[in-house]
Design a protein that fits this description.
alpha/beta, 9-stranded mixed β-sheet
């Protein structure tokens, strides 16, 4: 099975303030060639039924939703309603809360993820964990992410964000291969480190990363969806999206 290139619409958050903006974003992404989306950061005032209609109008599959951990807990009931309404298969939760950055705290967080996964299973979905850069630091000499995934068991997947892994100084291909079978979704996000040390997000192919090895690891381990992301851009955001999409489709 070939990995499908999909889009994480959190990248276009400034355009998602109302249903008109959501429709315009969906239409623009469909013209570029995307068929599958992960939804995040649509303004919470936007009606979920209207989002469903916009998905259908543009022939999109919503494969999953994503929330920061604190928002997943705060809006849990709505998240599960959205997944059911939009037929989402994956509930991606990002970030280990700082108060859980201890051996005991990670065990408690692993328990929470398992409970959320049980609820997701009732609607035919599953929970995936999206680590942030800070989550890769060590807790009692073990990487917090690795400790967490050991304690959650195989049912909980990892959704690696390659930008966060690179910034943490780890190997994206190694992590994808380590969690083969637990990694259906990955996030491709490119950046360039400027002379002053700041980070500038770029379209794929314009940053400091060579994506060949990451892509090969994804194909070898049967990753299902590669989500393109870029939350900051210059000029027309859809030009940046198209540039990334065209580059990604040429990877071999």
């Amino acid at each position: 099975m070939q990995m499908e290139w999909a889009y994480q619409i959190s990248s276009l958050k400034p355009l998602l303030a109302d249903i008109g903006g959501v429709r315009n974003v969906f239409a623009g992404l469909r013209r570029i060639g995307f068929k599958t989306l992960q939804l995040q950061w649509i303004d919470r005032s936007v009606d979920d039924e209207a989002v469903k209609e916009a998905l259908l109008e543009n022939g999109f599959t919503c494969i999953g939703i994503q929330e920061k951990t604190e928002d997943a807990l705060k809006y849990m009931e709505r998240c599960f309603r959205q997944m059911k309404l939009w037929h989402a298969e994956y509930f991606t939760i990002s970030g280990i809360p700082e108060e859980n950055m201890s051996t005991k705290g990670i065990s408690l967080f692993a328990w929470l993820l398992r409970q959320l996964d049980e609820e997701a299973g009732k609607i035919g979905a599953c929970v995936t964990f999206h680590p942030l850069c800070a989550d890769y630091r060590k807790v009692d000499r073990v990487c917090a992410v690795f400790r967490l995934l050991e304690e959650t068991g195989d049912r909980i997947q990892i959704t690696p964000d390659f930008c966060h892994i690179n910034r943490a100084g780890l190997s994206c291909p190694e992590i994808v291969r380590e969690y083969a079978g637990r990694c259906d979704l990955v996030h491709y996000k490119s950046y360039k480190k400027l002379p002053d040390g700041t980070i500038c997000l770029t379209p794929l192919g314009k940053g400091d990363q060579n994506w060949q090895e990451e892509y090969r690891a994804c194909v070898e381990t049967k990753v299902k969806y590669g989500f393109i992301e870029q939350e900051v851009w210059e000029g027309d955001p859809f030009d940046a999206v198209r540039e990334s999409y065209d580059y990604a489709r040429k990877l071999r």
